[in-house]
C-alpha cells in the first residue's frame, strides 16, 4: 500500500513504518539464528565456526548490494515525495539497469576471489573446506539478493513497508524448512545450508516481482520510461556508489575483526559467531528505526519540508535511546543463556571447550551493550542524512568506523588477546556516532539558509492537508 509520509503526525508515521521493518528484520534474524542452531546441533561446532568465520566475506558483498540499491531508491522516494510520476518511472528503469550490472560484477568477483580471500582471513585449516563450500554456493545467489533488496526498496520508497515484510517472513520460513531438509534428510552439511538460502531467495524474488507488477503500476517498467539518460543515471549513482562504499567499508572492517578472531581458533570463532547473532537480533529495532527515518527523510526532502525532517529525526532519536536502554538490560541478563541455544552443550565436539565458548560469547555481550546508544545514533542520523541525498558524511563516518574498529581489533588483540576484539565494534560505534551527529547538524544549518525553498514546501503541504484557503 502506497503511503505518503509528507503529511500526518511524524511520530506515528515513523512508528507505523518501522514496525513492519522490525518484524521483517526479526524474521530474517530468526532464520539466521535457526540456521546456526541447525548447523550447530545437526552437524558440528566446527561447521558453526565455518559459517561464522566466512559470513563476513559474504556480508561485504551483501552490504554493497544493500547500500547500492538503497541509494538508488532514495531518488525514487524523492521523486515520489515531489509527486513526479514520470520521474519515479525513470528512476525504476535506471535503478534496475544499475543493479543488474552490479550483481553481475559481484558474482564474478566473489567466485574468482574466494580462495585468496579465505587465506587472507586466516581461515583455520580444520574449517577451510567447509567455509569454501558454504561461500561458493552462497555467491551464486548474489543476483537474487540484489533483486530482492531493489524491489523492497522500491516499495518502501512509496511508503509501503508492510509488503516487503510479508515476503521476508515467507522467505525466512521456507529457508528454515529447506535448510533442515537438506541438512537433516539429505546430509549435505554446510552446502545444504547455503542451498536452502539460494532456493528460498529465488522463490521470494519471483513472487515479489510478480506482486510489484500487479499491485504497483507506478513501479512497472514501461517502454516510455525505458530510455537511458546519462544525467539521470549520474544522479542515481551519486548517491548509490557512496552508500555502497559506506556499507562495504563497514563490512570490510568486520571482516578484519573476523580475520583477527580466526587466529584464536574454532572455539573463539564459534563464541563470537553466536554472540554476534544475539547482538544483531537485539539491535534490530534500532535498524528498523533507521530505515524508517531514511524513507521519511527522503520523501520530505523531495517535498521541501526541512522542519518536518528535523521533527522526525528528533522523535527517532528518542525512540532509539529507549530501545538502547531496553536492549542493555535484556542482553546483560540473558545473553549467555541465549548463546547456549546455538550449541549442542552435551556433545559439542571432541576438541571443543563448551564452557569456554559460552564464557567468551557472554563476555562480548556484556561489553557491547554499554555502547548500544551510539549504535542508535548511527542508525538514526546516518539514515536521515542519506535520505536527504547527502552521502558524504555517512561515508566519512563509515571510514571512521573502519579505522577505529580495525585499529582496536589488531592492537588490542596483541595486548589483551581475544578479549581485545570485544572492544573493537563498541569503540567504532562511539567514534562514528559522533561524526554523523555533527554532520547532520552541519547540513541542517546549511540548508536552513535557503528559507524560500522550505517555505514553498510548507505552503504546498498546507494546501495538500487543508485545501485552498478562501
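Sequence proposed for the structure above (470 residues):
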Amino acid at each position: 500500500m502506497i503511503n505518503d509520509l509528507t503529511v500526518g503526525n511524524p511520530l506515528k508515521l515513523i512508528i507505523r513504518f518501522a514496525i513492519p521493518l522490525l518484524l521483517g528484520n526479526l524474521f530474517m534474524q530468526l532464520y539466521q539464528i535457526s540456521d546456526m542452531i541447525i548447523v550447530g546441533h545437526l552437524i558440528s561446532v566446527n561447521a558453526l565456526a565455518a559459517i561464522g568465520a566466512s559470513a563476513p566475506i559474504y556480508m561485504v558483498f551483501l552490504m554493497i548490494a544493500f547500500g547500492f540499491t538503497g541509494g538508488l531508491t532514495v531518488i525514487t522516494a524523492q521523486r515520489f515525495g515531489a509527486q513526479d510520476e514520470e520521474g519515479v518511472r525513470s528512476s525504476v528503469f535506471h535503478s534496475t539497469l544499475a543493479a543488474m550490472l552490479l550483481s553481475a560484477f559481484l558474482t564474478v568477483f566473489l567466485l574468482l576471489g574466494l580462495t585468496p580471500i579465505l587465506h587472507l582471513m586466516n581461515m583455520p585449516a580444520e574449517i577451510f573446506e567447509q567455509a569454501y563450500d558454504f561461500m561458493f554456493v552462497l555467491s551464486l545467489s548474489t543476483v537474487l539478493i540484489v533483486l530482492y533488496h531493489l524491489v523492497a526498496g522500491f516499495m518502501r520508497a512509496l511508503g509501503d513497508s508492510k509488503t516487503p515484510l510479508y515476503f521476508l517472513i515467507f522467505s525466512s520460513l521456507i529457508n528454515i524448512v529447506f535448510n533442515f531438509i537438506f541438512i537433516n534428510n539429505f546430509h549435505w552439511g554446510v552446502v545444504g545450508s547455503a542451498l536452502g538460502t539460494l532456493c528460498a531467495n529465488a522463490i521470494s524474488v519471483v513472487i515479489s516481482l510478480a506482486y510489484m507488477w500487479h499491485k504497483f503500476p507506478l513501479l512497472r517498467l514501461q517502454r516510455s520510461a525505458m530510455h537511458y539518460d546519462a544525467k539521470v543515471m549520474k544522479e542515481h549513482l551519486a548517491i548509490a556508489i557512496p552508500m555502497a562504499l559506506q556499507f562495504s567499508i563497514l563490512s570490510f572492517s568486520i571482516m578484519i575483526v573476523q580475520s583477527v578472531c580466526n587466529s584464536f581458533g574454532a572455539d573463539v570463532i564459534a563464541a563470537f559467531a553466536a554472540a554476534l547473532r544475539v547482538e544483531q537480533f537485539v539491535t534490530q529495532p534500532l535498524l528498523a528505526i533507521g530505515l524508517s527515518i531514511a524513507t521519511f527523510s527522503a520523501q520530505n526532502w523531495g517535498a521541501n519540508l526541512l522542519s518536518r525532517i528535523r521533527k522526525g529525526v528528533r522523535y527517532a532519536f528518542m525512540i532509539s535511546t529507549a530501545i538502547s536502554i531496553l536492549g542493555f538490560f535484556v542482553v546483560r541478563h540473558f545473553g549467555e543463556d541465549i548463546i547456549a541455544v546455538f550449541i549442542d552443550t552435551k556433545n559439542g565436539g571432541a576438541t571443543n571447550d563448551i564452557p569456554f565458548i559460552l564464557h567468551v560469547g557472554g563476555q562480548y555481550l556484556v561489553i557491547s551493550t554499554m555502547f548500544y546508544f551510539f549504535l542508535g545514533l548511527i542508525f538514526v542520523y546516518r539514515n536521515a542524512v542519506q535520505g536527504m541525498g547527502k552521502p558524504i558524511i555517512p561515508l566519512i563516518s563509515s571510514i571512521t568506523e573502519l579505522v577505529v574498529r580495525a585499529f582496536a581489533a589488531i592492537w588490542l588483540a596483541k595486548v589483551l588477546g581475544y578479549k581485545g576484539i570485544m572492544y573493537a565494534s563498541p569503540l567504532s560505534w562511539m567514534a562514528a556516532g559522533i561524526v554523523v551527529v555533527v554532520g547532520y547538524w552541519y547540513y541542517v544549518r546549511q540548508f536552513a539558509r535557503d528559507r524560500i525553498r522550505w517555505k514553498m514546501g510548507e505552503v504546498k503541504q498546507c494546501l495538500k492537508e487543508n485545501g485552498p484557503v478562501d
